[in-house]
Design brief:
4 helices
Length: 111
């Protein structure tokens, strides 16, 4: 009897530890200390948190990015949503670093 209680206690403890690690990993994806994380945070802030987890932002060339905005000191990232083999809408997000801060800020730009 004591052995089964001990096993279930160990299993429960492992599940709690693994769940804690998963939560910390997901939260770290949204801390904007890199430009790609700023893009993910921007997507999450605009009511698309699941897409923020699943996308891999691609940086646009400087000349192509400046078409979207007059901000020459920003970097622009392209995000395309793919589900299975179907490609869905794309977004361009401008990323810049605020002066005196270690974090980046992502802002969706108009197409």
């Amino acid at each position: 009897m004591k052995q089964t209680q001990k096993k279930s206690g160990n299993t429960r403890r492992r599940v709690v530890i693994l769940l804690g690690i998963l939560i910390v990993a997901v939260v770290c994806l949204f801390i904007p200390y890199t430009p790609s994380n700023a893009v993910r945070l921007s997507l999450a802030q605009h009511a698309q948190p699941l897409k923020g987890l699943l996308v891999y932002p691609l940086k646009l060339a400087d000349a192509e990015g400046q078409k979207y905005s007059g901000q020459s000191d920003w970097d622009y990232y392209h995000v395309q949503y793919t589900i299975g083999t179907a490609k869905f809408s794309t977004r361009v997000i401008g990323v810049h670093k605020n002066s005196g801060s270690v974090f980046y800020t992502g802002t969706p730009v108009k197409d």
